[in-house]
Amino acid sequence: MSRLTPNSAIAIQISKLPHLDQPYALEAYIFMLEAVDYALKKLAKPRHLTAVELLRDIREYAYRQFGPMSALVLEKWQIQDTLDFGRIIFDLIEVELLRKHEKDSLEDFKDIREYDDIFQCRYEFDDIDYV
Q1: Is 76 contained in some domain?
Q2: pLDDT band, residue 80 (cuts 50/70/90)
Q3: Residues 6 or more apart from 65 whose CB is under 8 A from it?
Q4: Is this structure's pTM higher than 0.85?
Q5: How would DSSP label each residue in 19-64?
Q6: What does the pLDDT look like over 44-74, one tens digit per residue?
Q7: 126 lies in a domain?
Q8: Predicted local confidence at residue 1, as pLDDT
Q9: Please, which residues have CB within 8 angstroms of residue 60's CB and are 6 or more apart in sequence?
Q10: Known InterPro entries for this protein (predicted)?
Q11: 125 C-beta neighbours (distance < 10 Å), count
Q12: Does the residue 18 lie in any domain?
């Protein structure tokens, strides 16, 4: 369940994006912030995450939140490939809700095929404990 609401200070910050809802919904941005938070909490010590590391944890977080409906939720939010995740991340950087390393690029999220299964309705995660 999301801790952020459309009226939260963070949601208001996100709403400053000039192209909000074109094509991604506010919920997609909120989900992404929560997924980044989830990924960072898994680390022993805070550090920078690569696109591939972040995508792994986004996939895991999506499945924890939405189970086998993950692909349908992402589709509703117009997230169709790994580059869409990158676009949302860089939008959040634009409104200063996330930071990037100087070497980070949107291209880092392009065509990461090992995570394509998140966009399908059937994939398995034997190593995830359901909460």
Answers
A1: yes
A2: confident
A3: 31, 73
A4: no
A5: TTTSS--HHHHHHHHHHHHHHHHTSSS-----HHHHHHHHHHHHHH
A6: 998 999 999 999 999 999 989 998 888 889 9
A7: no
A8: 44
A9: 38, 125, 128
A10: Ver/Plancto_CHP
A11: 13
A12: yes
Count structural domains, the chain.
1
**Signed CA dihedral, 110, 21, 39, 96: sign only:** positive
The two three-digit tokens of residue 21, written as one number: 């809802």
Q: Domain residues for 50?
A: 9-119
Q: Tell me how many degrees the CA angle 19-59-92 measures, rounded to the nearest 5.
A: 30
E strand or H helix at 74: helix 70-76
Q: Which residue carries 């009226």 as its tokens?
A: 7
For residues 72 and 124, the model is more confident at: 72
| CA–CA distance, 35 with 55 (Å, rounded to integer) | 9
Report if residue 60 sits inside a domain. Answer: yes
